[in-house]
Specification:
The protein is an alpha+beta fold and about 425 residues long. It has 15 helices and 8 strands. It is found in: Mitochondrion matrix.
Amino acid sequence: MRRPGFRNVWADAPQAVGPDNFYDSTVEQYALQPLEVLSLRQMLEFGKDAIYDKAKVLKSARHAQRELPKRLARRLMDLQFLPHIFVKNPHIKRVYDAYLHAFDTLRSLPPACTPEDNARLTDILQRLVDEHAPMLDALASGLRESSSKPFVGPKLPNLDAFFDSMLRSRISRRVIAEQHIHLAQRRPGFIGVIATDFSLREAVDHAAQRTRQVCTETYGFSAEVVCTGNLRASIPYIPIHIDYMLFELLKNAMRAVVEAHRGRRGQPPPPVVVRICDAPSSVTLRISDQGGGIPEADIERVWSYGYTTADASLRSDSGGSGAQPASFGSTMTQLPRPLTSETAHQIRSIASGAQMVAPSAGASGPWRMGGLGFGLPLSRLYARYFGGDLQLVSMPGYGVDAFLTLQHLEGDWHEPLAEHQSAPFEPEPHTLNAYP
Ligand SMILES: Nc1ncnc2c1ncn2[C@@H]1O[C@H](COP(=O)(O)OP(=O)(O)OP(=O)(O)O)[C@@H](O)[C@H]1O
């Protein structure tokens, strides 16, 4: 019985349902299941004739249905283990709720057995991919808000390992979802979202053009980007991944150069030089700048999530001018769209989908010049995801060389492998396994 003026908090509390209930261990059960690891090579081999093979598409659908809930469950568990004060941050809570909703939605679907089941799953996957685009921003904002609190901030544990698994898993889930969404679409030069012959020079040119544009909007001038080396090199890769990494690295180099040369208006700033080095098993892009380098004492910290020396006015959410994608999500949302065989055109059209603005339009575009401190660690995750790497060599007082290495998968990826028809995504020794 309720007394007037007395609120029974227990009776009024919303009843937790589904796996959010404290006593429900559904999330844990899924998180404990082993993952089926996939590789770029396997995805290419499996997907190359999928447009003619409905059974393959359904197999891929069931793979996505099996894999995504397990991967979401692991991240939900990670979030549950974090300090209460961090998980209760509204941005982080938003991520938790979105993941829980996606987990519940996907695990409740019956296994895709017909083209209609697949069509419904594909719609749901596309919706989730779109809805989750701002989650990266939410994570960054949650980290920034929590760590800037005077009492709580210093007491928070180091969250780099948490962000690594969170974002690596996010990359893998988006690759699984988007590869399936685009698997049955005919696009010359593409297998799903993977460009089979992606020109690195065109990728550099495109990222350079965008970087110069945002730099000019922010600082009033920019440095030239010179591309040298093997200008014909190409690799099979997911264009959005390369574009993200190149844009982040060029942006860092450009900011350092322009800030170092700001006082010398009469003199043009030294160019940022990108050298493409093609080797049988990998391609390395060296991005060299003369922006003064990173002080020795800070060189390790640049890999920490949230570490930045950029002025807050450069940050995407500051309302100031500048250039990092307005949200990380905007990069992620726009770039996985289906592409055509002409890579430059593809990336350009994707970027225009992201409302890229002309320099004259002022600083209102969605790309910002930095300030969240996610660019380097996230680019390294992208590079490592398919077996590559990202390293920095800083020469304090002079500049930085960033070495971005990407694995070549050409050679035997045309070879039809019978075992992939029965177990398309099973781990295979000696392939470049994505991290689970
Ligand atoms: N080429 C470079 N020259 C000098 N300092 C650099 C260079 N690259 C990175 N840094 C330093 O590393 C820091 C972290 O870089 P990171 O790309 O992770 O984040 P950011 O550029 O500050 O912000 P955002 O993630 O929004 O792009 C930078 O703020 C800068 O201090």
